[in-house]
Amino acid sequence: MLPQLVDTYILSNFLFYLVVLLASFVSMTLVLQFFELIGDMIRNKIPLVKMFTYLFFLTRNCLRHAAISILVAVLVAFGVLSSRTR
Predict the structure, then answer these.
(1) Contact between 55 and 30 (Cβ < 8 Å)
(2) Alpha-helical regions (H) of the chain
(3) For helices 2-43 and 48-63, what crossing angle results, to 10°?
């Protein structure tokens, strides 16, 4: 029973940090791209709908970088677990 409990605790902790880090990486990327392109968008009179369509498809590309988020989530999860055991 004990290994299952510990495994569940570690997995839930890891998944929480994975979701938080993945959402933060994707949102930071989208906000950065939006503010980099806002000047060109206003200058060329591009509708806001096209910009959000571009950002929507960019989100799919950002999710390909999920491996980085997974690695960071592992480090954070085990870092938090190790700091709690002291």
Answers:
(1) yes
(2) 2-43, 48-63, 66-84
(3) 150
Residues 16-26: pLDDT tens digits? 887 887 888 88
Closest CA to 9 of 86, 77, 63: 77
Helix (H, G, I), strand (E, B) or coil at 3: helix
In whole angstroms, give the CA distance from residue 25 to residue 63: 9
Q: Is the pLDDT of residue 85 over 70?
A: no
pTM: 0.68
Q: To the nearest 10°, the Cα dihedral for 70, 71, 74, 76?
A: -100
